[in-house]
Amino acid sequence: MIAASKYQSYGNDYLVIRESDLTRRSADALTRAICRRHFGIGGDGCVFVEPANDDRFRIRIFNPDGSEAAMSGNGCRCAGAYVHHRGLSRKAELVLETLSGQKIHHLLDRGESSWRYRSSLGRPSFAPEEIPMRLEEELSQVVDHSLRVENATVTVTALSVGNPQCVVFASTLPVDAEFRRLGSALEVHPAFPERTNVSFVRVTGPRRLQARIWERGVGPTHSSGTGCSGAAVAAIHTGRVGSPARVGTGTGQQQVEWRPGGEVHLTGRVEFVGEVRYHWREHDGE
């Protein structure tokens, strides 16, 4: 039996599990099994948490397909809520160690079963080698770049915010069929050797954006912290909006602050859903 706590941030739901409750080699298999809708508990991913040295916490994030993600804005926020909810730390400021470096989460306020954090996600990069992205021509940054996909040309702005982001600006957001077609094709486009997250973004005001997000290893998601961050940073960088920018995804808005050369700061809420004890067998979901 595996104990898991479920949290959601704007509908982006994660199962948070103590890493000491399982072996490292089982993390990907457990995630594939437990995240299955209808057959498992269901979730957009698993976050494995373990205390590290100096009152810090090490986290590992896995997508439903079993792939490991270096970073997740909402996943980290769910991990922070788990730490505070369980009383593992009483400090307002948490240091979470991820594969893409340390992320600092500052607790702004909390309710009976909800928490709001302002998170420091590090400095973004538009350099192709850091996204990573492979292009035929040499570019110092990937901004409003034409990319052939699905027998069409799509204009993309690509960057890393701890994970790869591909942002497509449009006057109207794509309908479901187009969203799924382009989102799935861009995720696995040869230009992205490690695949990519995809955000379709519409500017709705001087500091406001609306987005539909396709996550690498997940597919369509209600929200994404790094997706919102990538969308806002790309829009600020190209002069489409100012900072701070609010990014809506249909399930709520997150605020993104960024100045060129500085770190990205993301503010948003997370809510506790419930506790489960999952009966897991190694072959489940295989």
Description:
This protein is an alpha+beta fold and 286 residues long. The protein folds into 2 domains: 2-122 and 270-278, Diaminopimelate Epimerase, Chain A, domain 1 (Roll); 128-262, Diaminopimelate Epimerase, Chain A, domain 1 (Roll). Helix content is 16%, strand content 41%. It has 4 helices and 17 strands. The protein has helices at residues 27-34, 73-85, 176-187, 225-237, and strands at residues 2-9, 12-18, 46-51, 57-62, 68-69, 93-98, 101-110, 114-120, 142-149, 152-160, 164-169, 197-205, 208-215, 219-221, 245-248, 253-257, 265-278. The protein has an 8-stranded mixed beta barrel with strand order 1-2-3-4-6-7-8-17. β11, α3 and β12 form a beta-alpha-beta unit. The longest helix is centred in the N-terminal third of the chain and has 13 residues, at 73-85. The chain is globular.
**How many E strands?**
17
> How many domains make up the 3D coordinates?
2
CATH topology of the largest domain: Diaminopimelate Epimerase, Chain A, domain 1
CATH homologous superfamily descriptor of the largest domain: Diaminopimelate Epimerase, Chain A, domain 1
SSE blueprint and pairings:
Elements: E1 2-9, E2 12-18, H1 27-34, E3 46-51, E4 57-62, E5 68-69, H2 73-85, E6 93-98, E7 101-110, E8 114-120, E9 142-149, E10 152-160, E11 164-169, H3 176-187, E12 197-205, E13 208-215, E14 219-221, H4 225-237, E15 245-248, E16 253-257, E17 265-278
